[in-house]
């Protein structure tokens, strides 16, 4: 099963563009995340999360909180389901030209079943995710990852690699 981040009209002060593809070959297997996001600050780590809602009328504020149906604290992608949100995908790293190439797998997110991320949103944040280790209350909910820089809706789709404009908050 494949999913991709759909194109949304830009209202994007950072001019972030890109596409993200989620691929899960078996219902109990990991989800491979691949893609490319351009327009980031050079050589930066930026929080990257699946958020609750995929209805994004004009900006990213309607995406809701990190996808967290089990009401756990924020954590790292390497943490187990009892110590992270389903949507906690950590950070993406941009190169010296501000481009982040995504190529990783996650064992918690799913594309099928009651906890599927299909229809939700993916958000790139303005700051670095501290992975819930920051020692503050905000660290345990958002990872201190800052405002929402851009977002897009996760939908069923083909794996054609197209450049999509993400929207800014």
Which residues form runs of ≥5 with pLDDT under 50? 7-11, 160-165
Average pLDDT taken over every residue? 87
Give the helix level as a range of percent: under 10%
Shape: globular
Give the helix tally: 0
Overall number of structural domains: 1
Largest sheet, strands/sense/barrel: 9 strands, antiparallel
Report the span from N to C terminus.
Answer: 30 Å
Strand content: 25-35%
Q: What CATH architecture do you see?
A: Sandwich
CATH topology: Immunoglobulin-like
What's the total number of strands? Answer: 9
Rg from alpha-carbon coordinates = 14 Å
- SSE ordering: EEEEEEEEE
CATH superfamily: Superoxide dismutase, copper/zinc binding domain
Structural class: mainly beta
CATH class category: Mainly Beta
Q: Outline of this structure?
A:
It is built from no helices and 9 strands.
Overview of the structural elements:
By secondary structure, the protein is mostly beta strands. It has a single domain, classed as Superoxide dismutase, copper/zinc binding domain (Immunoglobulin-like, Sandwich). The chain is built from no helices and nine strands. Strands 1, 2, 3, 4, 5, 6, 7, 8 and 9 form a nine-stranded antiparallel beta sheet that branches. A hairpin with a 7-residue loop joins strand 2 and strand 3 (31-38). The protein is globular. Residues 7-11 and 160-165 have low confidence and may be disordered. GO terms for molecular function: copper ion binding; superoxide dismutase activity. Its EC number is 1.15.1.1. This is Superoxide dismutase [Cu-Zn]. It comes from Armillaria tabescens (Ringless honey mushroom). Belongs to the Cu-Zn superoxide dismutase family.
């Amino acid at each position: 099963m494949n999913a991709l981040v759909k194109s949304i009209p830009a209202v994007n002060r950072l001019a972030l563009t890109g596409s993200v593809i989620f691929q899960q070959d078996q219902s109990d297997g990991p989800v491979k995340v691949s893609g490319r996001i351009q327009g980031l600050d050079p050589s930066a780590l930026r929080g990257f999360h699946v958020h609750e809602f995929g209805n994004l009328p004009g900006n990213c504020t309607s995406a809701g909180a990190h996808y967290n149906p089990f009401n756990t604290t924020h954590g790292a992608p390497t943490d187990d389901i009892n110590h992270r949100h389903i949507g906690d995908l950590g950070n993406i790293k941009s190169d010296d030209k501000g481009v982040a190439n995504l190529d990783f797998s996650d064992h918690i997110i799913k594309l099928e079943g009651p906890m599927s991320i299909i229809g939700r949103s993916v958000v790139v944040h303005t700051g670095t995710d501290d992975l819930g280790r920051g020692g503050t209350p905000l660290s345990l909910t958002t990872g201190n990852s800052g405002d929402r820089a851009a977002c897009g809706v996760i939908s069923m789709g083909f794996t054609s690699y197209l450049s999509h404009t993400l929207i800014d908050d």
